[in-house]
Design brief:
The protein is built from five helices and no strands. It has helices at about 5-15, 20-25, 40-45, 65-70, 75-80. α2 packs across α3 and α4 (about 65-70) crosses α5 (about 75-80).
């Protein structure tokens, strides 16, 4: 996982930011109101993260190494509870 990917996951899972916000603020790419946020979505989907996971770690700090050891979002969340 790259540092940028970790930043994207943190923004989505911990801060609940939208795809478009993440794309503008972290990826520094345009994110129009209609059709924006696809690059963010690609990164999230690469790690098995879907809309039901948004803000799921709002009370936690995201640890990229721990996430990689867990293997997926479900196992990672189980470790955090």
């Amino acid at each position: 996982m790259t540092a940028t990917e970790a930043d994207v996951l943190t923004a989505y899972l911990c801060r609940g930011q939208s795809h478009r916000e993440i794309q503008r603020e972290i990826l520094h790419l345009e994110a129009p109101a209609r059709g924006g946020g696809f690059k963010t979505m690609e990164i999230l989907h690469k790690f098995g993260i879907r809309k039901e996971h948004k803000s799921i770690l709002s009370r936690h700090t995201f640890d990229p190494q721990k996430f990689e050891r867990a293997g997926d979002i479900k196992a990672y969340v189980a470790l955090e509870d």
